[in-house]
Amino acid sequence: MVESTNFDDLLNPQLHETYQARPVFVGNQQPRPVSEKTPLADAPMTTALEPEETRRPVVIVDDLHVKYQVYSSGKSVGTAGARRLLAPSTRGIREVHAVKGVSFVAYENESIGVIGSNGSGKSTLMRSIVGLTPPASGSVYASSRPNLLGVGAALISDLSGDKNITLGGLALGFNRKEVDELRDDIVKFAELEEFIDLPMRTYSSGMSARLKFAIAASKQHEILIVDEALAVGDARFRKRSEARIREIRENAGTVFLVSHSMNSILDTCNRVLWINKGVLEMDGDAKTVVDAYKAYKK
Ligand SMILES: Nc1ncnc2c1ncn2[C@@H]1O[C@H](COP(=O)(O)OP(=O)(O)OP(=O)(O)O)[C@@H](O)[C@H]1O
C-alpha cells in the first residue's frame, strides 16, 4: 500500500506555530547593515551619503558593487572558423561586474521605481538589498529586513491553491490562525474561488501568478521589493495589484518596483532610479527620470 503524505507532515507546526519574521536588527530605529563586505556592523559609510534629517531613512545603499563569477565555456561568440581557432581561449571563470558603485538613501513612505535596459543590474541590486546576493564591496543598511515580493519558492505545485496559501502564509511569518483569517481575502483577491481546491499545477501561469501576488501582498511589509510582478496577469489584475502596492506604501511602507512598464512606474512611483550598465545613471522625481530614460532609448 502506498502511504499518503499528510499535509501537516510537510510542515512542522512546532517550528512554524510561533515563528515570526524577525527584523534584522530588532528595536533599533537606525538603519543597520543587512549585508556588507566586511563583518564590521558599525563600519562608517564610505561615501558622502547624508540622509535628510527630516525624514526617516529605511534603506541606505552605500557604494555597492556586486560581481558574479561565471564559468565560461570558451566559445567566443561571433568569431567564425579559423579566427575562432586563433583567438585566445576564454574558457574558465569570467567575472561579471553587475552593480558598480551604486549609492542612495530610501525613506519611509517612498515608492521607488527601478528602471533600465535588460541586464543593467536592477534585479541584482534588489537581490543585494534583500541580502540574497552578497556584495563584492560596499554596504546595504536597512531599518528592518526588506522583503522581495514572491513566495514562489515556498509553494508546491502538486498541492491545491488552498494548501499553498497555508504554505506561503507560513513562509511569510504568519502563524496558522493568522493564515486562516487571511485565507478568504487572498482567494478573493486572486479571483480563484472556483479553483482553489485544484492542484496548482493545473493553473495557468496568470492564475498562479495571481495567487502568488495575493499571498505575498496579504502582508503589510515595511520594506517591499516588487520585481516585475505586475507584468503578469491581465490589465484588470495589474490595476488592482498596483492599488494594493499603493496601499502598502500609504500604511508606512517603502516600496521598490522594478519594471519595464513606464506606465506602471508612473502610476505607482514618486521617485525613480535609472540603472544603466550597473551604474546609477539618474535618481529623482518619477516623471523627470522616465522622460530622460525614454529620450535615451530613442
Ligand atoms: N546568477 C548570475 N550569474 C551570473 N551572472 C548573472 C547572474 N544574474 C545576473 N547576471 C548578470 O548580471 C548582469 C545584470 O543582470 P540583472 O538580472 O541584474 O539585470 P536586470 O537589469 O534585472 O535585467 P532584466 O531587465 O533583463 O531583468 C547581467 O549581465 C547578467 O548576465
From TrEMBL:
Keywords: ATP-binding, Nucleotide-binding, Transport. CDD domains: ABC_KpsT_Wzt. The keyword Transport applies. It comes from the Bacteria. InterPro entries: AAA+_ATPase (IPR003593), ABC_transporter-like_ATP-bd (IPR003439), ABC_transporter-like_CS (IPR017871), ABC_transpr_TagH-like (IPR015860), Bact_Polysacc_Export_ATP-bd (IPR050683), P-loop_NTPase (IPR027417). Signal peptide: none annotated. Pfam families: ABC_tran. GO terms for molecular function: ATP binding. Belongs to the ABC transporter superfamily. PANTHER family: TEICHOIC ACIDS EXPORT ATP-BINDING PROTEIN TAGH. This is Teichoic acid transport system ATP-binding protein. It comes from Paeniglutamicibacter kerguelensis.
